[in-house]
């Protein structure tokens, strides 16, 4: 029996894309943050500043989060062509971002608990030394933010259509939020230390720890919500892709979509399963051609069902 060559019908499932720059920048930020983390924790203990200690502890967890980000990039890249990943390794980065969000929430809780403790048991603070170290920490955070900011969020639109799809590398976004949270904590620490030094408002130190914890917890919650949508294969938010598929397919006379599933498999890359019902069925490839302008649809399966009922 002759076995046909089916190679031309096969297609790859490597939807990861090139994130070598993001991976390299993340490793740079790890080195910067780890160095500053050691300095801030040591200085916070020596100068007895809760704001400085909180900033240092916050940085320590961010180092772990950045390592998760770098590991996710590495794992997704190394297994990009592994057939055991049915729709590629695009979600590894999303899982890394989700884990980072949980770490961020833990940091917020830790900051809140320790700040309340400092309210109840205040301690003297060596303001000059603490302010100096906090300013250096802020500078490191600003540099790290500029390193990670490159293409962590952007969008595009198809020519001739009034719509836009957002494509976000949530793995890099998670690392970016960690850096911004660090910078925010540093600003609060500096403000609290200046208030204590010049006005004797020592209560500002733990108060800023609580404020920072609440804000960071809100950021963590937002990141969890964004990643859970992707991990659970929910239809992407803020996208009109569903509507556009209906418009393209049902724009053909006597053609209806009976079932449609869309889910994200990579950064701005989606898979879809479409069930079409018609009295005059055509090949699945014919219907796929109707969607050819949507480059973000990288894996499309079309089921065609012949309708036996009389046309209405």
The CATH topology of the largest domain corresponds to: Alpha-lytic protease prodomain-like
CATH class of the largest domain: Mainly Alpha
- Measured distance between first and last alpha carbons: 46 Å
Please name the CATH architecture of the largest domain. Up-down Bundle
Instruction: Give the H and E element order.
Output: HHHHEEHHHEEHE
Number of helices: 8
Average pLDDT level = 80
- Low-confidence stretches are 152-166
Secondary-structure class: alpha+beta
SS elements, strand count: 5
The fraction of residues assigned to DSSP E strands is: 5-15%
Radius of gyration: 26 Å
Give the helix proportion (percent range).
55-70%
Q: How many domains, in number, for the residues?
A: 2
The dominant shape is elongated
Looking at CATH, the homologous superfamily of the largest domain is Cation efflux protein transmembrane domain
Describe the structure in your own words.
With about 300 residues, the protein is α+β, with helices and mostly antiparallel strands. It has two domains: about 10-230, Up-down Bundle (Alpha-lytic protease prodomain-like); about 240-305, 2-Layer Sandwich (Alpha-Beta Plaits), CATH 3.30.70. The chain contains eight helices and five strands. The protein has helices at about 20-45, 50-80, 90-120, 125-150, 170-200, 205-230, 240-250, 285-290, and strands at about 155, 165-170, 255-265, 270-280, 295-305. A three-stranded mixed β-sheet has the order 3-4-5. The two termini are about 45 Å apart. The model is unreliable at about 150-165 (pLDDT under 50).
């Amino acid at each position: 029996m002759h076995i046909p060559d089916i190679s031309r019908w096969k297609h790859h499932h490597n939807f990861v894309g090139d994130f070598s720059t993001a991976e390299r920048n993340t490793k740079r930020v790890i080195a910067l943050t780890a160095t500053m983390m050691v300095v801030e924790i040591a200085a916070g203990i020596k100068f007895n500043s809760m704001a400085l200690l909180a900033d240092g502890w916050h940085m320590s967890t961010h180092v772990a989060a950045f390592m998760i980000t770098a590991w996710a990039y590495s794992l997704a890249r190394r297994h990009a062509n592994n057939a055991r990943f049915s729709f590629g390794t695009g979600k590894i980065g999303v899982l890394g971002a989700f884990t980072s969000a949980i770490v961020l929430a833990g940091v917020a809780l830790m900051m809140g608990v320790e700040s309340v403790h400092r309210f109840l048991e205040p301690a003297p603070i060596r303001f000059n030394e603490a302010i100096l170290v906090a300013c250096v920490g802020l500078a490191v955070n600003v540099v790290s933010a500029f390193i990670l900011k490159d293409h962590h969020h952007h969008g595009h639109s198809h020519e001739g259509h009034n719509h836009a799809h957002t494509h976000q590398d949530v793995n890099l976004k998670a690392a970016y939020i960690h850096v911004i949270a660090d910078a925010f904590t540093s600003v609060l620490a500096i403000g609290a230390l200046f208030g204590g030094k010049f006005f004797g408002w020592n209560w500002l130190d733990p108060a800023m720890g609580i404020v920072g914890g609440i804000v960071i917890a809100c950021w963590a919650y937002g990141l969890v919500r964004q990643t859970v949508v992707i991990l659970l294969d929910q239809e992407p938010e803020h996208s009109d892709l569903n509507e556009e598929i209906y418009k393209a397919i049902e724009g053909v006379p006597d053609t209806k979509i009976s079932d449609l599933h869309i889910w994200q498999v990579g950064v701005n890359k989606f898979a879809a399963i479409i069930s079409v019902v018609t009295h005059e069925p055509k090949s699945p490839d014919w219907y796929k051609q109707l969607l050819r302008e949507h480059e973000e649809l990288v894996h499309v399966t079309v089921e065609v069902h012949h309708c036996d009922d009389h046309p209405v």
